[in-house]
Amino acid sequence: MTTPIIAPSILAADFANIQREVEMLNNSEADWIHVDIMDGIFVPNISFGIPVTQAIHEHANKPLDVHLMIEKPENYVQAFKKAGAEIITVHYEACPHLHRNIQQIKDLGCKAGVALNPHTNVQLLEDVIQDIDMVCIMSVNPGFGGQKFIENTYKKVRQLKEIISDAGATTLIEIDGGVNQDNAKDLLDAGADVLVAGSFVFSSEDPINTISKLKTV
């Protein structure tokens, strides 16, 4: 088992002290900073947009993993690239022309990710898996932090790993939602590569230590 990529979700941070929170992540063993963008339409919540992403980028020395939980993401990917995104993930469910969306992101020089909601079958990505740099499996229903982990996620990870292997692809598998010390090892054993953790990190007494423990789980 390889060492996981840890991507703490800034959605769970203290927004009144965003610079301090980003600097804490800079000083931790976190690999990426996960930035959740919500529009109140695709998901029933609104988070923040391009200016806040840019502000995070100005203080971050780690790649921004930007997760677009929005309708019509093709209208915004260029702006998020300019705001500092290195990885841009769009939702399968929001992209009727997914192949075009993936190519648009890659043409900007970003890594392209595709997220799947809990009800979406991983086999729907078989025809584009070689074009995708990362698949983000939602292990909670998107829109709110601190939700309970959905147990069916392990099965989806194993199925997706098989699709990736059969295609000879190098696609990473990211897990987003309800990740903690109790399920991290099982997720990695199933085939996950990237762990997103929000409230588990930022609500802990010692976030730097919590990240370190996830890194060595």
Automatic annotation (TrEMBL):
Binding-site residues for a divalent metal cation, renumbered to this chain: H34, D36, H67, D176
Any single biological process term in GO: pentose-phosphate shunt
Record keyword tRNA processing present: no
UniProt xrefs under Pfam families: Ribul_P_3_epim (PF00834)
Pathway(s) the chain acts in: Carbohydrate degradation
Cofactor comment text: Binds 1 divalent metal cation per subunit.
Entry-linked InterPro entries: Aldolase_TIM (IPR013785), Ribul_P_3_epim (IPR026019), Ribul_P_3_epim-like (IPR000056), RibuloseP-bd_barrel (IPR011060)
Family: Belongs to the ribulose-phosphate 3-epimerase family.
Name of the protein: Ribulose-phosphate 3-epimerase
Species for this entry: Fulvivirga lutea
